[in-house]
Amino acid sequence: MDSLFQDFAQANNTLNGYLLATTISPVPPHSDPARLYNFSRSANSYSIQTDLRYKLQYNPDIQLDRKEANAWLEVYTAFYSFVGTLLAAEETQNAGRAREADWARVYDGWKEVVNALLKGYQSSMFAVWTIPCLYTAGRYLRVFAIKADESIASQRDSGLAFGGIQEEDAFNPDSKHEKLEDAARQINRIFALCTSDRAPLEQSRKWALYYTATLLFKTYFKLNSISLCKVILRSLRAAADSDMPPLAAFPKAHQVSFKYYSAVIHFLEEDYVTAEALLTDAWEQCLRTTNGASKNLELILTYLIPTRLLTAHKLPSKALLAPYPRLAALFDPITSSIRAADLTAFNAAMEAGEEEFVKRRIYLTLERGRDIILRNVFRKVFIAGGFEGAKEANGGDGTPTAASGSATPLVRRTRVPVNEFAAALQLAGAEVGDGEGGVDGDEVECLIANAMYKNLMKGYIARERGIVVLSKAGAFPGTGV
Amino acid sequence: MMGAAPAYTAVPARHTLQQPPPPPSAAQPPKVTWSPAVRLYVQRAFEQDNAIPGIDQKAMQDKLKVIITEAAESGRLEMIDWRTYPLPQHMIKQEREQAALYGAQNAVVTNMNAALPPTYDGAYSPPPQNQRKRKSPDTQMTLAEELDTTPPWKKNQITHGLEDRISGKSKAQSKKQKKIENMRLNAELSNADALQRRRQRFGHTPEPSPYLSSHEDSPAPTGPVVGTCETLEKNYFRLTAPPAPHTVRPLRILEQALDLVRKKWKNDHNYTYACDQLKSMRQDLTVQRIKTEFTVKVYEAHARIALEMGDLGEYNQCQTQLRALYKSHLGGKPEEFVAYRILYYIYTRNRTDLNDVLADLTPADKQKPGVQHALRVRSALAAGNYHKFFRLYDEAPFMGPYLLDMFINRERLAAMAAICKAYKPDISVHFLAKELSFYGEEDQDGTSDADAGARQCLDFLCQHGGEHLVERKETDVRFLCGKAGALFENARAAAFRGVDIKGQI
């Protein structure tokens, strides 16, 4: 108990919120790994209130207002009983009986700590420098809720929980996240506590907003309720209009994670332009850190690559992916098939990676890489068609000669028979067969029409003549031909 | 749903007329008897300093009226310590916060709204009745209720009012006064917190989940009902209390009932009747907790009929249940309904849900022809491959066409937008009709007349303002699509803008 309150005193005297947060952390500091155990042993549930009051109110190192001391007393009382449940659960787990560890109780115990904290803030007992405590509070709500849900599920599966497999489950498929749903509500309370703070900026709890918002995003993602994230984004936007510090004034860590999550939300809404801007920002900020936030960089790339594929038709280089073997394994088959304009390989890669892509919610975006492949196939046909006039001179091999080049500026052959596109598509593995060994010309035209509609290709189809007339200047925008 | 939640929403009988201020009646004590304490309280309520922004005078006055009339009616006028009794505006505020607390998901929004001018008036009423009751049971209880349910804490502390219990400490007047002021200063959130503590004392869970709140006050579940009803037909009636066994049909009767409903549906095609009957069957199954292959059959039957009639509300309810039922492997036709689900999300264009469906599919699911068809529809549309999409439309299995019909027009417009941009200068209407799957009415012998399709296609073009671009050339009718780009681009954008989602859970 002593080391804990030494830190508490020091934190209070130096207004160090992060140090203060370690005193209510469920993870003991490195310097004092036995802290929780000692804290639990140093008192019993009968005397804890008195002991704590003594530490908080009559401690010469700590000068606290009586009411504030009372508020902390509640926090640490709750923390004391929480530590009891936590140590019990950890012990059971370490004894090899992981299934019996009561993480649900740990979660409930932690919730009490959070409640006591929130109460202190609600009655304005705790100054703004203490908000790292709210970070710890929210963060572990989520951690313990996930653990609790997992243990409830595994108990249920093994029939340990009362009544074995509950029949109600069939009608209530969401019950497996019961605690996490509750955690989302609790974190939302923290969020509300911060948005509703009307104190002047320098004393405002609004400084905790982005951190809390990120926690909520994480939780909602896990719960698969992305739509709720939009509510949070909207209220942040509303807060930003009134009196909110600019995002850039927040700690870097808050900025990066917030940008990442809001980018992913925009990504899922198909707002790729916003997503790209946010991801690029986050990427650059991450790169500038010295401790190599490689996990974050990897996460950012997971969304930045499909985004860039869509917005700029750009593929990641081997060098970019080299430090991230997992990402390389995920994206390499896709990118190389797009580069080779090989639809068969692309389809195989999409199928092979489907599970992972769907899990990361990038499948539906990556799929649109098909457009780029088709564009590349059409472009190859166009290039293979060679140049007007040069054709006769060179026996149709398409290579311009110096002689013909000097006379008139070279013009590519812009009238391409649909048949040539059809053949190329078949070679590339497109499923344009008519089911009887032939080619479905209408489908080929449809694919061409689509490429034109999406501005990947300029020109028009003259159906009656069976040719495609391509634009003389920049038939394939952005590709140099 | 909680533990063994009953299949009805408990609606407690109204104990009290808690809402609008009761009309002056003979039962009310004569007006002259207001004590000085009460008059002071009223004065305090009107003081400018005590006003809370966001709560207007009118709301406050109404509440004040309710408080005093109720106190008078229950004879507590003299018992209440009016000096410390919470002011009406504080009560209103509490109630609003309470409401905010309940919609935990919406909490943030509510907070945002705090800055906006209030839209509440005095008659503010959160939807479920029992929520409101939980808020301030002591101020709103009638005399009769109070007599037999006054809990011990109330008997002891009735004179100390709300604040005293919030601070939960000293009873000395001076100290108390201070506390109250303190509390008012930072009233906003501590109230909510105090209320939460109070609710705990009432034995409620500290944070009622918004999903569960409607069940919270329902009486302890009594276990499944075993029906004894022998009648085949039964009208649907929304339960508000556990059903009597003689009104519930047992499985064997329900099985006959399903056959009957199916037969009648085939003969009369009366949707109102069929829907009503199927709903009552679903209810009987739920209250008896029957979860067998037959349950699946009932939901499937209802989903199909609803789909046929375009009743998306009922259809979605059934789909939600079916999804859960299929997870318990009770049989039925998961292939068919998984395919419907995919098609439905294509219709609503909900990418998140679509992604989830894809995540749910097992390799075995993907091998089933019905599911494969739906997946091919999805990928054709994702690629903008209208040609393939319309071919798939022609060969949709099960009741797929009903779902596809919901968005076929939208996709026709999308295809037209692409065609108009790509084909120049004009195009045969016969070709368009074929590409866009216009076949006209099929003849009895199954052959369709090509001109009928072209006529339908022309109708479609004209509907969207393309009549001036239709030309007759020799033997063919041509559409000047080169000039219709903007026309169909706008129509396409409008068609994709909004999808009305009904009853989606």
From TrEMBL, chain A:
Residue intervals of the PCI domain: 256-475
Record-linked Gene3D superfamilies: Winged helix-like DNA-binding domain superfamily/Winged helix DNA-binding domain
Pfam families reported for this sequence: PCI
Any one GO molecular function term: RNA binding
Family: Belongs to the CSN12 family.
PANTHER family cross-referenced by the UniProt entry: PCI DOMAIN-CONTAINING PROTEIN 2, UNCHARACTERIZED PROTEASOME COMPONENT REGION PCI-CONTAINING
Protein name: Protein CSN12 homolog
Lineage, highest ranks first: Eukaryota, Fungi, Dikarya, Ascomycota, Pezizomycotina
From TrEMBL, chain B:
InterPro entries in the record: PCI_dom, SAC3/GANP/THP3, SAC3/GANP/THP3_conserved
Record-annotated PCI domain positions: 311-476
GO CC term (a single one): nucleus
Ranges where the record places region Disordered: 10-31, 118-140, 152-183, 202-222
Cited PANTHER family: 80 KDA MCM3-ASSOCIATED PROTEIN (PTHR12436), LEUKOCYTE RECEPTOR CLUSTER MEMBER 8 (PTHR12436:SF4)
Protein name in UniProt: SAC3/GANP/Nin1/mts3/eIF-3 p25 family-domain-containing protein
Biological source species: Neohortaea acidophila
Lineage start: Eukaryota, Fungi, Dikarya, Ascomycota, Pezizomycotina
